[in-house]
Amino acid sequence: MFEPGRVCVKIAGREAGRLCVVLEVLDSNFAVVHGPGVRKRRCNLSHLEPTQTKIELKDGYLDELARMEEEKKK
Q1: DSSP 59
Q2: Could you tell me the pTM of the whole model?
Q3: Rounded distance, CA 40 to CA 18, Å?
Q4: Among 58, 57, 12, which residue's Cα sits nearest to residue 38?
Q5: Chain segment 12-58, per-residue pLDDT in tens
Q6: Domain-by-domain residue ranges, the chain?
Q7: Cα–Cα dist 15/59, whole Å
Q8: Which fold has domain 6-73?
Q9: DSSP code for 55
């Protein structure tokens, strides 16, 4: 379920409600995530809600996430 490129919503902490993407799964409990308004850091998987969307990790993935965040607000 959690794999590199999976778009998730943070459900805990000050970044709750923001979209992020999984960059790397560290073990069964933690992954490295990054997104617009979400610092690149290790995150507990229980604090993430995965979405159906998976993006290709390449240059510009933050722009794609920012666009998705704007569409979510509308």
Answers
A1: T
A2: 0.86
A3: 13
A4: 12
A5: 999 999 999 999 999 999 999 999 889 999 999 999 999 999 988 88
A6: 6-73
A7: 23
A8: SH3 type barrels. (2.30.30)
A9: -
